[in-house]
Amino acid sequence: MPAPRAHLALLIGLSTGVLSAPSRGAELPPCSEPIRYAADWFPAPELDHGKRSAEVTALGNAGQKKTGKGVQLGHVMVQTQLSVEPQASCAGIVVRLAFVKPVLRIASEFPEDSCSYARVLNHEHTHVRIWRDIAAQFRQLRYPWPERASSATVLNHARQALATLTRAQDEFDSPEEYARNNLLCGGEIQRLVKLPSMASAGG
Predict the structure, then answer these.
(1) Which segments of the chain does DSSP mark as H helices, in order?
(2) 127-141 pLDDT per residue, tens
(3) Which residues pair with 91 in a beta bridge?
(4) What CA–CA distances, in Å, run from 93 to 56, 89, 149?
(5) Measured between alpha carbons, how far is 17 from 24 in angstroms, rounded to an integer?
(6) First CA to last CA distance, the chain
(7) Parallel/antiparallel/unpaired status of strands 91-106 and 74-86
(8) d(CA 118, CA 88)
């Protein structure tokens, strides 16, 4: 089944008008890179093991335009925030990606010492690693039209680029990955949670 985008809730801070340096900008030299992209480190997420799979699924699907049809056994959820800030040492700006309150959930049906818990946790840790890869790729972005940049156009470019980068999360959540997870642990996952023919081992 298609995986819900439980890992992503995008918050964009838009401002309007032509980009300009801060009030002290007249005293600063122009930046060699007038528009720079930066991303915070994706922190270790809070672990939530207190909700049953039905609630994990409901939380993962909340606010999503398209939702999965199956049960979510776990997921990583985070808010991503984009902002424009002045560069500190020269006249230019930084487009910053921040990660707000990441949470890693595992359905409470899985005991912490079980094979199924370890399997779902491993899957979700891969999502965390993908987020860190996305942050690294975001830092390498370049704005293609700096001579006619505005806050709105720069943020829109960053939003589109981030949406493209986050496709890696959905690509990892493939039907093959789910099927492989559901076959591991000697059928323990199916015994602990009533699953349809294919369920989401994570998201």
Answers:
(1) 53-61, 115-139, 151-165, 167-172, 175-183, 188-192
(2) 999 999 999 999 999
(3) 30
(4) 39, 10, 11
(5) 18
(6) 12
(7) antiparallel
(8) 44
Tokens matching residue 117: 């818990």
- Helix, strand, or coil (residue 23): helix
Q: Looking at this protein, which amino acid is placed at residue 145?
A: W
Beta bridge mates, 200: 72
Chain length of the chain: 203
Provide the pLDDT for residue 134. 98
Q: How many CA atoms lie within 13 A of 62 on its CB side?
A: 10
Chain segment 14-32, per-residue pLDDT in tens: 333 334 444 444 588 988 8
In the 3-class helix/strand/coil scheme, how is 131-165 assigned residue by residue?
HHHHHHHHHCCCCCCHHHCEHHHHHHHHHHHHHHH
Q: What tokens were used for 121? A: 């946790």
Beta strand pairing status for 30-39 and 91-106?
Answer: parallel
Give strand pairing partners of 100: 79
Q: Which residues pair with 48 in a beta bridge?
A: 105
For residues 153 and 14, the answer to whether their CB atoms sit within 8 Å is no
CA 124, distance to chain mean position in Å, is: 12
pTM comes to 0.81
In terms of C-beta density within 10 A (0-12 exposed, 13-18 middle, 19 or more buried), how is residue 118 classed? Answer: middle
Nearest Cα to Cα of residue 137 among 166, 112, 113 = 166
